[in-house]
C-alpha cells in the first residue's frame, strides 16, 4: 500500500476514533452530523453532557417538565431544537440564552401556561417557531418583538381559551406565515396583527370568534395568505379585510357564516383563492366579488345556496375553478355563469340540481371538466355545450338520465371522458350514437349499465351491439306541435314529430276524419292533401277548411304513439285590409304626381325660353326704372 493511500486510511480511522470518543447522552443516539436524538427515551431533564458542536437536538416524546435558565447557553451552533410532546409547564426567563444560531424551535403539545417577556430575545436567527397544543391563556404584547428573522409562527390547538393582546405580533416584520388554528380564540382585538407587513398566510381555523371588529386587520398591507376555517361567525362586518391589498389566499370554511356583507372583500384586489366551504350561506349578493377581479379559485361547497342569484358571480372574469358541491340551489338558471369565461373546472355534485338552463356552459372555451354527479337531472338542452369545445371530462353519475340528445356534443372537439354510471339508461335508438361518437373522438365511457329494455338490463352500454339499439316511436320535442298559416299559403308542410328504431310507419288523420299515408295518398287525390316519401303532410292551399287538429300515428314492431298537431289559420281582418288599401292608394297617387311633375318640368323650361326670346329687351330710365315696351315707344313724343 503506497504512502498517500495509507495516510488517507489512517486519517479516516483517526476521525472515526475521535467521533466515537465524543460523549453521547444516555439513551440517545448521535451521528457525525452533530445530531443528537433522544426522542422517546423517557428523559425527565435536558441532558447536560451535550457537545458544543451539536447542531440538531431532538427531545420529543419525553417527560421533561421544566427548562431552566441557561440550559442551552453553550450550544452556540444549535440550529434545530425539538421539545414537542413533553410535559413542559414552565420555561424560565433566559432559558434560550446562547442559541443565537437556532433556526427552528418546536415546543408544541406541552402544558406551558406562560411565556416570560423577552423569552425569545436571544433567538435572533430563528425562522420557525411552533407553540401549538399548550395552555396559554394569553399572548402578551410584544412577546415576539425581538425576532426579526421569524418567518413562520404556529400557535395551533391551544387547550384553553386564548386571548391575544393588541400588538402581540408587533415587530415580526418578516413573518410569512401565522397559524392560530384551533386555538380557542374568543375575539380578535384591534391592532392584533399590526406590523405584519409581509405575512403570507394567516390560519385562524377551528376557533370560536364571536364577531370580528371592523379594524381587526388594519395595517396588513402585504398579507398574501390567510385561512379562517371552522370559526363560528354568523356574519362578517364591512371592513373586516380592509387594506389587505396583497391578500391572495383567504379561507373561511366551516365558519358558521350565515351571510356575507357585499363589501366584505372590499380592497382585496390581489385575492386569488377564496374558501367559503361548509357554512350556512343561503345566497351571495350581486357584485360581492367585484373587488377581487383576480380570483381564480372559489369554493362554496356545503352551503345551502337556495337563493343564489345570476349576478352572484359577476366580475369573476378570471375564475378558473368553482366548487359548488353539496349545495341546494336546485336549478342553474340563465346567465348564472355568463361572465366566467376563464372557467376551467366546475363541480356541481350532490346539489339537488334538476334543471340546467341551455346557456349554462355555452361559450366556455377553457372549460375542461364538469362534475354533475348525484343530482336529479333527467334531460339536457342540445345547445348546452355549444362553444365548449375543450371539455375533456363530464361526470353525470347517479342522476335520472335515460338518454342524451345526439347533437349535444356537436360543439366538443377532442376526446371526452364521459361518466354515466348509476343512471336509469334506456339503451334504445336514442343512445346508439354514444359508443361510436366516443370511438371517433378518442373518448372513454365508464362502466355504465343499461336499465331498459329488459333484454339489455345490466349490460354495459359500450357492449350493446348497434343493431340491438331498438326503440318504440317517441316524440321529438324540438319539432313544433302548433302551426300558424294564412289563407292562400301554398304547399304548407306539417312534420310528424316522432322517431323510432326501426323507423315507424306514419299515418295521418286530417280534420275531416280521412286517414292517409305515403302509400295510400302519394299525390293530391282530393285536390287538398298529399304525403311525401319522408312522411311529411303537404296541404296544397290554406283555407278555413283545413283549420283544426291533425293526428299523426307512428307505429313499428315495438309499439306505437299518436301526436296531435294543430293548424291555426290566421285570418286577415277587414279593417286591416281597408287600411292597407288606403295606404296603397295614397302611395299610388303620390307616385303618379311625382312622375307627372318629373315629365312636365322639361316642357315648362322650353316654353319659358321661347317666351323670353320673343320679348324685346327693356331699357332702363334712371329716373323711373325699367320702361315697358309701350313707354319706350312714347319716349320721343315726351321729349
Write up this protein.
The protein has 5 helices and 41 strands. By secondary structure, the protein is α/β, with parallel strands linked by helices. The protein has a domain at 473-569: Sandwich (Immunoglobulin-like). It has a 19-stranded mixed sheet, covered by helices on one side. A 5-stranded mixed sheet has the order 31-39-38-34-35, with no helix packed on it. It is elongated and about 125 Å long. The model is unreliable at 4-21, 210-232 and 617-639 (pLDDT under 50).
Which SSEs are present, and which pair or pack?
Elements: H1 3-21, E1 29-30, E2 35-37, E3 56-58, E4 66-67, E5 80-82, E6 90-91, E7 104-106, E8 128-130, E9 138-139, E10 152-154, E11 163-164, E12 177-179, E13 201-203, E14 226-227, E15 235-236, E16 249-251, E17 259-260, E18 273-275, E19 297-299, E20 321-323, E21 331-332, E22 345-347, E23 355-356, E24 369-371, E25 393-395, E26 417-419, E27 425-426, H2 433-441, E28 444-445, E29 450-452, E30 471-475, E31 482-485, E32 490-494, E33 498-501, E34 505-509, E35 515-516, E36 529-531, E37 537-541, E38 548-556, E39 559-569, H3 574-614, E40 619-621, E41 625-627, H4 629-633, H5 635-638
Parallel strand pairs: 2-3, 3-5, 4-6, 5-7, 7-8, 8-10, 9-11, 10-12, 12-13, 13-14, 14-16, 15-17, 16-18, 18-19, 19-20, 20-22, 21-23, 22-24, 24-25, 25-26, 26-28, 27-29, 31-39
Antiparallel strand pairs: 1-2, 30-33, 32-37, 34-35, 34-38, 36-37, 38-39, 40-41
